[in-house]
Amino acid sequence: MVTPAAPGAAVPGPVRLVARLLRPRALALGVAIGLGILAAGASLSQPVLVGGLVSELQDGGIAPGSIARFVAVFVAEALLLGLQAYVLGVTGSRVVLDLRRRLARTLLRAPMSVHADLRTGDTLTRLVTDTSMMRTTLTQALAVVVLSLVTVLGAIVLMLVIDVVLTLVLAACIALTTVASLVVSSRVRGATHDMLSHAGDLGAALQRALGGIVTVKLSRAEDREAARLARHAEAAHDSGVRAVRLAALMTPVANGGVQATFALVFTLGASRAAAGHLGVGELASFLLLLFYLVSPLVALFSAIAQLQQGLAATARVAVVLDLPDESREAAVADPPALREPALSEPGLPEPALRVRGLTFGYGDRPVLRGLDLDVPARGVTAIVGASGAGKSTLLVLLARLWDPPPGSVTLQGRDVRAVPLPELRRRVALVEQEAGLLDASIRENVLLAAPDADDHALAVALERADLTRWVESLPDGLDTQVGERGTAVSGGQRQRIAVARMLLLDPDVLVLDEATAHLDSDSEHALRRAVQEIARERAVLVVAHRLSTVTQADVIHVVEEGRVVASGPHRELLAHETYRRLVRHQLLDAGDDPVAGREVVEVTG
To answer: In which band, very low, low, confident or very high, does the pLDDT at 301 lie, cut at 50, 70 and 90?
Structure first.
């Protein structure tokens, strides 16, 4: 589930977040409220004008000018309300647009340690459903509260002028109704939060099932997953019904209070008019003002409930906005000196990458335990080891997908934590083992890391990744869509697209997390030749699972239980027991170089 990255970190309060989001749109919101106040003024003037018309009628006739003023005020109110609705609608859409942009940027910039805890379905619910609910809170409900309060206060002032006793009775009735509404609305907020949380759980469960749909089908688990989704749907339904029930309770509370107030004031006003304390025109104006108060009062109480619902959604969104930004984390300006001795030979150039005493784990699970290795500035460096030895963890630390301890990893003598992330990820280009593609065209996926690359650079990258002939054979060429997560292309094609994408960066270090794992023999040989060519100009670091990849490496590091236990070229390492075991049981493949394979068999028996 979504949680702030740092324990104890303060999450912005919903009210403060609403204020912060509205600040850039304060002028537009002020204009909308101003239009509403003018409309409220026009509305409140109508009972007074009606009272004047009644008085004129008693005195012998209504002047044409009085009728014209009444019609003008009525038309002005309608125009002002229409314009206000438009301004509020546009402002609300802009506020939600700004908010969704901020949420998207925050999620994309959050560290991998945060993404490990995120549930995609719940996050999407916050980004779409919760922000849509906030739109009502941020503009319409807030404006309705302000305008209703202005209307109510304005009407009460006018009523005080007409009759103090009736106004005090009215104010007492409104206060009682407001207290009852606030009691109900406070429970609406909690119920809405539960409803949105259950909706997030449902989204997460749906994403789990659809994200692994092939596994679900092959495991014959469709019915079990459908039942699981149904349980989440029922929980969301039940919490939604509770929220709706409490919100619906606002209607009888508000209407009942307003109607009781109207009946009481009408009866008391009639008795005061009969006793001579009120004139007929004054009573008509007072009752019309009371009648005009019904809609603003009901709207006020409904808006209070909407505000509570919106604040519940805002609280969930605030948690996402509070996620840390990996690019803003503290960098090490002067990295501490690495412990010696260096693994590289004296007099050789500074390695492209140097790792010293690297210790790292996920939570309480240690993975790397004081790992040391050098990656020369040129040539192929291979890392081999059993599953779980820490090979892939090392690679993601080099690209700072997770942060290594300060001073543990340097790039050409500079602590990687002191290198700005965009620069680091251009200079250290990582091709993942399970190459991820976006739901876009081949061109967009290859250009993802270097969108400004020209056609020549693109063509060279495609050729080096052995993609040219395949792309030319497609009807739409580079504009062919790869589908969601690249499902419309094969695993080998996904791998080569990812390699081409990283080659466009022209990196100092090309890191391949077994990039040949999904390639056929022809494509593997082509990519191997490309790697050898690339290694003449820069460092290439590969995690190897096949002997053919290992034998071409200049240096091989054998990793066991989070440490490098042996280093050297292939022929020398064949004398090392751990390396022999790995070659015999994991690296040797029928599709590998037969000469190297015979050599391994001869050495290992």
So the answer is: confident
Classified as helix, coil or strand, 539 is strand
Beta pairing, strands 414-415 & 409-411: antiparallel
The CATH class of 353-431+507-604 is alpha beta
Sheet with 365-375, strands from edge to edge, namely 365-375, 353-362, 409-411, 414-415
Question: Where do the DSSP E strands lie in 277-343?
Answer: none
- Provide the 10 A C-beta neighbour count for residue 40: 25
Strands of the sheet with 428-431, listed across from one edge: 428-431, 509-513, 539-543, 379-385, 555-560, 563-568
CATH of domain 14-327: 1.20.1560.10
pLDDT in tens, 47-79: 667 766 666 666 666 666 667 777 788 888 888
Residue intervals in the chain for CATH 3.40.50.300:
353-431+507-604
Q: Which residues pair with 509 in a beta bridge?
A: 428, 539
CA distance 330 to 403: 11
Q: And the tokens for 487?
A: 């499902």
Q: Are 426 and 420 in contact (CB under 8 A)?
A: no
Contact 96, 136 (CB under 8 A): no
> Above 70 in pLDDT, residue 473?
yes
Evaluate if residue 298 carries a pLDDT over 80: no
Q: Could you tell me which residue, 301 or 27, shows the higher pLDDT?
A: 27
Residue type, 415: D
Distance CA 589, CA 557 (A): 20
What count of other Cβ atoms lies within 10 Å of the Cβ of residue 238? 13
Pairing verdict, β 379-385 and 365-375: unpaired
Collect all residues with Cβ–Cβ distance below 8 Å to 223 and sequence separation of at least 6.
none
Tokens in use for 533? 């060519």
Dist. CA 337–CA 387, nearest whole Å: 32
Give Cα separations from 124 to 118, 131, 318, 408, 470 (angstroms): 10, 10, 14, 36, 36
- 198-to-11, 104, 202, 310 alpha-carbon distances in Å: 21, 22, 6, 16
| pLDDT score of 560 more than 60 | yes
Q: Take residue 384 and report the two structure tokens written for it.
A: 């081999």
Helix (H) or strand (E) segment spanning residue 124: helix 120-125
Q: What is the mean pLDDT of residues 280-295?
A: 77
Q: Which neighbouring-strand residues pair with 415? A: 410
In 3-state terms, the chain is what percent helix, strand and coil (to 5)?
65, 10, 25
Cβ atoms of 278 and 272 within 8 Å: the answer is yes
Longest CA span, the chain: 125
Identify the CA nearest to 233 among candidates 200, 260, 266: 200
Q: Where in the chain is the domain with CATH 1.20.1560.10?
A: 14-327
| Beta pairing, strands 353-362 & 428-431 | unpaired
Mean pLDDT for the chain overall:
78
* Beta strand ranges found along 177-283 (DSSP E): none
Does residue 521 contact residue 590 with C-beta atoms inside 8 Å?
A: no
